[in-house]
Input
Amino acid sequence: MHDGLHVFLRERCLVSVTCVETCYSQALQLNGRLMTVEQVLEEVLRDRAFYENSGGGVTLSGGEPSLSGDFVKRFLEQCKEKGLHTAIETCGEYPWAFLEVLLPVTDLIMMDLKQMAPDKHETATGRSNDRILANARRLALTNKPILFRTPVVPTVNDSDEEVGQIASFVRELIELREKNGNTRGGTTNITYELLTFHKLASDKYTSLGVKYEASTIDPPTSERMSELADVARRCGIEARIR
Amino acid sequence: MPQTRELTYRERIEMLRATKMRHTEEKWHALGSMDMDDLPIMLPPPESRKIIRIVSGSGLSMTDAMFKEFIPRSTHPSGGIFGARACGENIRALMDVHPPYVDPLSSLAGGYMAHFLSYRQPAWNPDFDYSHLHEEQNRYKLHPGIGAVQHFCQDMTIGLTLGWGGILGKIQHYRTVNTGEEAEELYDGLEHMVRGFQNWIGRHAVAAWEMAEHEENPQLRQNLLEIADINGRLVNHPPKTFREACQWMLWYQLAGKMYNMGGSLGRIDQFLFPFYEQETKRGALTDEEAIFHLACHFVMDTSYTQLGGPDASGNDTTNALSYLVLEAAHRLRVPVNVGVSVGKNVDPNLLRRGVEMLFEDKTGIPKFLGVDRTSEGFARNGYPIELGRQRAYSGCHWCAIPGREYTVNDCVKVNLAAVFDVALRDMMSDTNVEPCTDELWHRYEKHLRRSVEVIAESLDFHMDHMYRVFPELHLDLLCHGPIEKGRDASHGGVEFYNLCVDGAGLATVADSFAAVEQRVDDEKHLTWNQLIQLLDTNWAGKDGERDRLMMRSIARYGSGGSRADSYGLAIANAFTRFVKEKPTPHGFNMIPGIFSWAATIAMGKDVGATPNGRRAQEPISHGPNPDPGFRKDAAPTALAVTVASVQPGYGNTAPMQIELDPGLSKNHDDVGKVVDLIRTHFDLGGTQINMNIIDKRAILEAHQDPSRHPDLVVRVTGFSAYFASLSPEMRQIVVNRIIAEE
Output
């Protein structure tokens, strides 16, 4: 408390949650909570009927699920035991073993390919893409369905050249899978999507006290997205726009 | 209108829509807001107009306009109009003075400017005293249904087959068969009504003919001559063409609105289909013409109708006309209450087209009907499932067997929140018990059971006397039995009696139980006496607001797996058990539902502050829905699971109200996701879905200034309406739902 006012110093927060419990007006809220595998499964199974009717299932998204390997693996195992379709969204930036251990219990891998040029990738994300591309190649050597995705962010990776390079890489991986005979039912099960940048996350940044670097970037137009899909098509890849 | 070129049907629909908007805006200025169905009444001319407050056919207070020169003839010292003969005479007299309305752009004549209800004051005959029920009705703040009108469904095929001449002949025949006093009075009333119809229709034929004489535009002159010709025939004869059938149906519906604000239409794609099929087969009717005639009907009558769904054997009845009805609503974009059937055998394309319309029009039209669940549920009352499948969606949240079932649907409400308050006070006033949530639940069950018993006794009183107060003359004409037996539908005239009893305020009570259990019993942040003081003072005092927020910030009903969810289920189960454990004392079957309709505001005004953090007189929760903000992610699947879990399951509904992300686009995937959501909710046991895919920006702008978006249509609850026509309180309820979806 400072002069009778509650002051929140994020850097000193120990996540004791006392402040949240005291703040009944919910001005402070705890995002996330500790749960067991069984509790998560219980929550997930409540919606089971929706997965069955829609052909959907469980998708683990970001943070990076492969960094919670043991929990995620046990959870996905139980999902498979219950007959649920499983998917993970991953950035691919980690040792291969992190992903390898999840493959037996994952039906679909959704991996981002944001940029082919290592220096530009590092500028945009803070990390090189060496391991990402290597992991993507190793994935292509399995027969696991993969959905590669490029979030198209104007000024970051929205040029014809940049998308063309990514699409060509995907084409290369498809050929690699075909060459190694890892197709199923006559298809490589490697698909590609262009994701239209949006600003839905801006409120989340604000509530976390983090500057939203993309605040000045406008979403690409649908015409531009179609042009980029044409670029991918010319590289031999059908790209779905989302 | 001078001739320039031939107007297309689409252009005429747009012009009819503009006329309706003009009428609607005039009503806003003269009558103010209206939290109910879009009644297509037009105002009488200003010089003969009088504005009054009345109680609507659904039991809500409303402002209405009436002809000031029309004085009804009372036969009772109270000045009221009671019994079949008096009601028949007076509705006939009202129709006789009612000016004709013919729009040369429409293919159908007719419009109405007066509600007979407004002239019937007092509404209840004081000779039939029910003061012995008042104390408990008031204690539990019940809406007991005494004096409830319409809210069941006619069989339109009777009228389309017989015509007015045939119906008159039928009345005259059965006069000779049934000769008692009750029958004679009923026949007098019915005959007055039919003759009133005939005169009204005939005067429109003359008016159309006179207008044609002065019309310069040959297209419209021809149209007027056709209207004159059609209506001249319809005075006596049954309709032969699709257009004539639409015209006949419109007369019947307008008279229903005029008589007692009736609004049931039923399965329009079934009873009009023979006319459509016969004419299209011989090339006499195009789909464009059929859509136009339907639009001309809907612009004057927004009544409730079902599309598709099973026949008695369970086979799907969806046909080409089902799609044309949807298309008419789509082109018209007025608050038409169209419901699309969704079921195992029902054409899935109808559902898909309905969802596409939600995306395209953003009017909350159509709504979706879980026909398998409602027909299976109805069978649990001891009826064959074939009967359940014949029940037709024909009102806000309800269905009824056309022409064979009397229901008082949507008119009888148990205010679950008021019962909670009684239970809480009962416990606190008992010095022999230590207050605790278990004891409160025990008392709640006791009072809930008693409130249902009071409802049952009230319904018996209604059934004993209604035919001598305000008989169902209009619906009697197209039911199987009233004419044949000489008895009003409310008094043994029809075959089945299944009286609707709805619970309202489920989330308010579920959250209140969970809040007291957690904050008072378990965490001991408050004592029971402190809680009572906070409720009595409406959360006043130094820490009042803090305590209110504390009670409010528990895991709420709808969050999934919470104690409030458990209470929600327990309350729904207890309510269902009490409604079903016995019939009324006179033996009428009651069927439970969970629905509060627009009465969520009125019922809220009857209840002080509640432990869920609700302030005194604020609206109680809506139907079986959780309160807005029930879950941080507002997951539609969590909502769908919750509402499906609390269904009473006896054929009446507990509809899910859902607002979906306006950011969704109408691409293949998004339509598919909504289709899957609808299907799955019904698979889980859901019975009806009222859904808005909303233009959020427009709604928020219209909330600030309704005049900026006068034609914005939203699904408010079971009914859809112009957003601008709603009261500020009702607009706030809709806005709260939308904001909570963010």
